[in-house]
Write a structure and sequence with these properties.
The complex is a heterodimer.
Chain A (H helix, E strand, L loop, with lengths): L12 H13 L2 H19 L4 H10 L3 H12 L4 H11 L3 H12 L6 H10 L2 H10 L8 H29 L2 H22 L3 H19 L5 H23 L1
Chain B lengths: L2 H29 L9 H23 L3 H4 L3 H17 L4 H18 L3
Helix pairs in contact in B: 4-5
Amino acid sequence: MTATPAISAAESPARAFLAGFKSAVTSVFFLVLAGTYVGIGALAHDFGFSAWWLMASSICVWAAPAQVILISSLGGGSALIEVAIAVSLSAIRLFPMVVALLPLLRGPSVRTRHLLLPAHFTSVSMWVESLRLLPSIPRSRRIAFCNGLSVGYLGTAVTFGFVGFFLAAGLPPLLAGCLLFLTPMSFLTSTIRNSRQMVDGLALLLGLIIGPVLTAQHVELDLMWTGVAGGTLAYAIHRIRGAKK
Amino acid sequence: MNATLSELWPYLLLLLVGFLPNEAWRVLGLVLARGLNEDSEWVVWSRAVATAILAGVIAKLIVFSTGALANIPLSLRVGAAICGCLAFWVARRSVFAGVLAGELVLLAGGLLFPS
């Protein structure tokens, strides 16, 4: 963990941007992102996308789960409407995150257009660190700091995406297989860790079971149904148990 | 399809089915950024749906693997994932330990039982 960066309101926005960038590349999320995007780079290579396409997807989607869904379902030949629905359902969490972040960035001289970039950059790593670090930074320098932080994380993701892509292309089959295993293994463990309530753990378990069953049965829009059925069932069980207490 | 279009097509798809459905939620957050309780029932349900979708993708990547991972037997892939989860718990919910253990089991299994 990095120490809280000390920035005074007297310093220029450029200095605040650099301080944000520096705290990104020295934080614990640097390693997490590097590992995740090495895996995603290998996945993109495996499904036949170009390295430039991967870079473009990291910059404009900037959400690892959505990118994994996009690459595996688009590359696997799913119907476009299904890909769009699955990506969208995976991204709902971004909505409350943006809502929670913006009050920290708003100020007397801040206009909505200044908030466009921070809103676009909102993702788990940036959000957790922003909520932790921004309160100690002068309000007039927060957007610059936040953008620096985000560019640091995004640059890490893009760089290690390239690394994974070209490693997958050059490694012997077994090691390339291990590289491809990084994505499901890291997402599985980090999703277990992020499960804050019983309902999240239940949704994870149901999704793990329902997903492959629907795929094996060749059900149309299998990902969407996995999410809606697994998520709603988990939610229903959570409500019923809550009502009994 | 002419050459330019076939080169641009993946990028067009990226915008249509990747960028737009994802970004819509961020823009919505920007537009409607007024008191939304993190624990409201709607948020709990949407998080459950998103978690189940992601779990479905994870399971598909392990069970119906493609490319180099498909050369490794299914039982070994599933076994490595279970070992990774066990290591995650043993090491007090450490993602790093979980990933490392899963990868080592997969690598060792792949070396011991070459396909």
